[in-house]
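Annotated sample (chain length 80).
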Amino acid sequence: MRWIHLSVIIVFVACTLVFAIQNREMVTISLLNFSVRAPLALMVAVFYVLGMATGGSLWALLRRSIQASRRSAQQDRRMG
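Output written by the structure step:
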């Protein structure tokens, strides 16, 4: 299983490197009055990391909310 995991990581890194090499042209991203000009591969990487951070935070918030509601329901069953 360790070798399968390692080979999947190697394939992912190789694909990422090929993407970065092939997408070096500059792009401009604008939001409201703010604009950024950078290589496409860098923009994709930055937004991927931002998505991971916000997605992870959302999952943690939902998990805590579900656990709190389960605890509350268990306490209600004990009381009533």
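Annotation: DSSP finds two helices and two strands in the chain.
Annotation: The chain has one domain: 2-79.
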